[in-house]
Amino acid sequence: MVYLTGIAKNQEELDAVIETVRKARHVKKVISYVRLMTLYETRRRKIFNDRMRDSPLKEMREDRHNKIMDKPQKTAWAEPEDKPEIPPKKIKHNPDGF
After folding, report:
1. In the chain, where are the structural domains located?
2. For residues 41 and 50, is the Cβ–Cβ distance under 8 A?
3. How far is CA 34 from CA 8, 13, 28, 92, in A?
4. What are 40-56's pLDDT values in tens digits?
5. Residue 17 in contact with residue 4, Cβ under 8 Å?
6. How far is CA 33 from CA 16, 18, 22, in A?
7. What distance in Å separates the CA atoms of residue 69 and residue 83, rounded to the nearest whole number?
8. What's the CA gap between 27 and 24, in Å, rounded?
9. Positive or negative, the Cα torsion across 79, 81, 87, 88?
10. Do the Cβ atoms of 52 and 32 come closer than 8 Å?
11. pLDDT digit string (tens) for 63-82?
């Protein structure tokens, strides 16, 4: 006994699969749970496959990112040694220990 499951593109495809399975040795019965692909299913798959492709804006984002990275960035100081020194915080000690 053979169970078939899945989605067939059309009736001809399903018939071909069933016929092939029936011709296999030791197969006495074929039970099909295959459904035919509907227009809805075709559209749904197309939308899903389109989402798997890169976004058309991806190249634009990469170009913009590269342009930004090519330009020198303005900072408050040019070198780490030019960085202003921050005085340490004064900590008041409480005589009670808190």
Report:
1. 2-56
2. no
3. 7, 11, 18, 78
4. 888 888 888 777 767 77
5. yes
6. 15, 11, 15
7. 22
8. 6
9. positive
10. no
11. 888 887 777 666 665 566 66
Q: Are 56 and 28 in contact (CB under 8 A)?
A: no
Return the pLDDT at 84.
65
**Structural tokens at position 62:** 């990469």
| Residue 14, phi then psi, degrees to nearest 5 | -65, -45
What the block records as the tokens of 9 is 């593109």
Q: Cα separation of 94 and 46, whole Å?
A: 71
The DSSP code for 17 is H
Contact 37, 8 (CB under 8 A): yes
Phi-psi map region of 54: left, alpha, beta (phi>0 left; psi -120 to 50 alpha): beta
State the sign of the Cα–Cα–Cα–Cα dihedral 44, 49, 50, 54: positive
